[in-house]
Fold each of these.
Amino acid sequence: MKAIVYNGPHDVQVKEVPDPKIEYATDVLVKISSSNICGSDLHMYEGRTSLEAGRIIGHENLGEVIAVGKAVLRVKVGDKVCIPFNCSCGYCKNCERGYTSACLSMNPGKVGAGYGYADMGPYEGGQAEYLRVPYGDFNCLVLPDDAEEKENDYVMLADIWPTGYHAVELSGFQPGESIVIYGCGPVGLMAAYSAQLRGASRVMVIDRHPDRLALAERIGAIAIDDRNRDHVEQVLDFTEGEGADRGCECVGYQCHDPAGHEVPNGTMNDLVKSVRATGGLGVVGVFVPEDPGGADELARKGEIAFDFGAFWNKGLSMGTGQANVKAYNRQLCRLIQLDRAQPAFIVSHECSLEEAPEAYEHFDKRDDGWTKVVLKPGLSAGGKAAGKAGAGANTGAEDSKAEKSHAHAHAGGAK
Ligand SMILES: NC(=O)c1ccc[n+]([C@@H]2O[C@H](COP(=O)([O-])OP(=O)(O)OC[C@H]3O[C@@H](n4cnc5c(N)ncnc54)[C@H](O)[C@@H]3O)[C@@H](O)[C@H]2O)c1
Ligand SMILES: [Zn+2]
Ligand SMILES: [Zn+2]
């Protein structure tokens, strides 16, 4: 089959690799129809993880079940499924309590496993034609009948919507509260969207990319461009000088100033400044135990100079970590099915696997208009989307609709 393989920093390629097989009776094999490029993939793409060359990337996966192992009883061939990025067992001490991001059995000696990701076990990624899903009955979310029609919405359930939702949840958010979100990438946008759906009185999102900030405004959030004026001051102005009730970190260890210089403690200390006393922080941006390419001595050891005194003095609380996708994906799926939510509003590009290397380059540079890429293995290169990827930005909403229906026709035809 064809798959996107990591070759080294800034180098991913489409390669012919062996097809995955049912290895255990509990496995499910999925023919992938959508697999997103994630901001998390960019940490690997930029060579800032220990990912080995030769690995297949891709952890935001959706597709059709084409084979099931003997012990799979619930999931059936032909089901459309969305697969959480956490690859979990369902029976360990953490999975039992719903903490599937901290599964103790799938990545022995470590906590938590995922598809196609550094340090998250041997499981291959889904930016490929096929994917093996261990413990298929536990891990697959079987999608409703409108799965094909709303595929770009449902594929957001694999990671970034539950992750954005998790950020809001970890912050201790209650309806009616205000919330500030650092980072207006896909995860920050999904945190803003979740806070809106949960009845926030005010949602403020900070970034410096106008295309991303425009999407935040489109869902009714206040966009704060930190190139113009001190962003903490702006948050204080919007909250009667108090600071927001809650704050989310949706950037991670490679956070930087608007000029691009990495400031590893930047967002965490900005959150302490912009959230009110006794408020809460939800940190889902990835921070790593060591970062050999880090900007300073502390960062290289996975540490930051955190304003703990101010944090303590304000009586702030904080929740951190990978999202437990299964804790949320079923409920969020219902919101899509019943037309209460359309998380695909962030999708800017649908690309074939052949176009993926180019798409990685654009998304990594946060080029204008490249807000979220969905790879469609069923889409052949040279279709309309090929031109689109080559042309770069996708700006108009109308454009994007036309693009989507075209790509759908392609994907449908390939099945
Ligand atoms: N915890 C989880 O389960 C989980 C899941 C998915 C992604 N993530 C992580 O979430 C983070 C965001 O992911 P994404 O897909 O949105 O990535 P992204 O890189 O596309 O978006 C990050 C955004 O943050 C902005 N930014 C950088 N520095 C900033 C600063 N100092 N202040 C404000 N904004 C700043 C960038 O301009 C960019 O738009 C990444 O670290 C990713 O690895 C975590
Ligand atoms: Zn992801
Ligand atoms: Zn487990």
Amino acid sequence: MEQMPILLFRSLVSRSPPSSISKSKPRSPIRKKAKIENSSRGDRATMEVLPPAEILPTLAEMKARTPKPMRIAYAIRYGRLPASAAAGREDVARCVAALARTYEPDMDDLMEFPEVALKLQPGSCYLRDHDEDAHFIRADPGVIGVADGVGSWRAKGVDAAAFSRALMANARAQVDSAVPGTPVCPYKLLERAYEQTVAASTPGSSTAVIVSLSGRVLRWAYVGDSGFALFRRGRMVHRSQPQQASFNCPYQLGAWGNKVGEAAVGQIAVKDGDVLVVGSDGLFDNLFDSAIQQIVRMCGELKFSPKMVADILAGNAYCNARSNQDSPFSAASRQQQGTSFTGGKQDDITVVVAYIVS
Ligand SMILES: [Mn+2]
């Protein structure tokens, strides 16, 4: 059976609201090492992961805004209630049907270039672990950047956040000093920001993604596993493919790292109503694409703001990182190195969600 993102499940299906979880009896702190060592024994199956305090208001609002028939429908879909719970409830049956609906992206739309310019309506959530991610958002002229400082510098006594922060600060400053109305080329922006960051002898290294919207075209440049996904009518229509040298070792920008010339670049025509999700690997290593899509779809149906979507995505990634559920990280490790652990990757989680609107 399809797995429901933990927080959605708890928030919508359980009787107690998420905010009451923190009132339950105290639990021992969860450490990453212990998690990986114990995970194969399955003894964390009933472990409860507390949602991060930052997103509790969003979870409470999500619960308040989700109609009861829809909550029952989710409980049926994910096996918490029998299908018979919809008997005689036309409202519940309608919600069950809505959840089962298949969304077909209209691929012809990808080639369409109508005249009206679109803009970004953004919101973000940053849940810190070592606080080495950095990001910036400029709704006008429509630029989003996310960078993730490579943590292994920490062991060498280097500030692992230095490169990601300087890279994003330099990129943001470039955007802010540009002549208004000038379209932003993500590759050139990343290149200049990188050159400035290296010229200042900034230590460390970082993965990075920059996306820009001008007119009706979304453009991108990225190095490593900071990435993005684009959704149309509830369906993922594009997803960046992480660049990595080996398992858990992404391409990275730095004085001695990969160069901007190795960046993946591209563009895609977008439509009014599309949803863009940009994030660090703290998001993409902890939530499968299917779960991200499910959350984007549900939040769209409930008319949530981009900020709420970002909170819910980040909150689910946070809980998955600390759970014993399989994750893209554990699945990739199994595939690439034959390991058997399940669970996610405890990490900084940066999520920027932007609605593309006219
Ligand atoms: Mn990371």
